[in-house]
Amino acid sequence: MAGGRQDRQPAACRELIRRHATTGGPDRGAFVAHNRPSEDPTDPSEGKADMTDIRSFENTPEAGFGDYVQLLKPRVMSLVVFTALVGLLVAPVSLHPVVAFSAVLFIALGAGASGALNMWWDADIDRVMRRTQSRPVPSGRIEAGEALAVGLALSGISVVMLALATNILAGALLAFTIFFYAVVYSMWLKRSTPQNIVIGGAAGAFPPMIGWVAATGSVSLEAVLMFALIFMWTPPHFWALALFMKSDYEAAGVPMLTVTHGRKSTRRHILIYTILLAPVAVWAALSQIGGPVTLAVTLALNAWFLIGAFRIWKRDEVQAEADGYATEKAFFRFSLIYLFLHFAVFLLEAALKTQGIGGW
């Protein structure tokens, strides 16, 4: 019976068994060649990359750890962390160092969540703008869905943990900040109105208030003044950037003031908002978080900022293009120093108070 069954085996099968016995394994080349579909020159699929071939993925960019860091917008996060830390440390209530560190960490995670959600939503326009083309999502190193998942996960973790570490009001403010930046600003204001930066600036103004609330459990005048300082600073800061990046915003269809009203109007708005910013800064210096040192620094910073805004207002496009927008770029760079020094002097004044020589 066994011999009869063997005789009935196809010749090809017997040959395959013989090769397995003599070589220690099947002849894979012959087997694959025998089973590969015949090539048909009229088949439109011929010549296309085999998706099972690893070589078809050789040119696909891969995400590294640094890409996930960039997804959280670390430069923006650094400003958030610093202003939140100042808001927490200048508050009249001291937190345990571990609790304070945890609060700042969760606020930073919330800022990173906002950045990831913004990058997910804005991937289409980020691909168009030169300034943002190399970001992880528009460059293809991180999938848009993955950025969304990271943003949502960090949002939930940061809000819940901040509420548990400090108080519910701080957690609620962080949740509102993430919602405001990701939904109100990114999904609505940014693409619909030239006032996007004016209203949307609130998202970046909340961190010092959150830090203050994390320490005290309540909102006070000082927290509002720190919020107002960043809120009023944001428009001239970003409009100065827009003056020498107009083509990017125009190509992406973002209705920045430079695109909808022109550079001349933008220059006038920069001067107006810089003038309105000065009394807010002075008021903060005269409050309980200020003092003589803060007031002196505030007056110097705002005088220089006003001079820069006035210079921008006086210039026309012929002058600006002639020197490559040097005055506008200098104003933009100084605006970063302006905000950093304002909050640094708040921190210095608080340190001087502990020595009995600061404050009013």
Which key phrases capture this entry?
360 residues, mainly alpha, flat, 17 helices
Low-confidence stretches: 1-10, 20-58
State the major sheet.
none
**Content-based structural category:** mainly alpha
Helicity, as a percent range: over 70%
Distance between the termini: 109 Å
In total, the number of strands is 0
Question: Overall mean pLDDT score?
Answer: 86
Radius of gyration: 30 Å
Molecular shape: flat
- Our count of helices gives 17
Q: What is the element string, with H for helices and E for strands?
A: HHHHHHHHHHHHHHHHH
Q: Percent of residues in beta strands?
A: under 5%
Write the layout of secondary structure elements.
Layout: H1 2-8, H2 11-23, H3 28-35, H4 65-71, H5 74-89, H6 97-121, H7 123-126, H8 144-165, H9 168-192, H10 196-216, H11 221-243, H12 246-252, H13 257-260, H14 262-286, H15 292-314, H16 317-322, H17 326-354
Helix pairs in contact: 5-6, 5-10, 5-17, 6-8, 6-9, 6-10, 8-9, 9-10, 10-11, 11-14, 11-17, 14-15, 15-17
How does this model look, in words?
With about 350 residues, the chain is mostly helical. Helix content is about 75%, strand content about 0%. It has a domain at about 220-360. Mean pLDDT is about 85; it is low at about 1-10 and about 20-60. The protein is built from 17 helices and no strands.
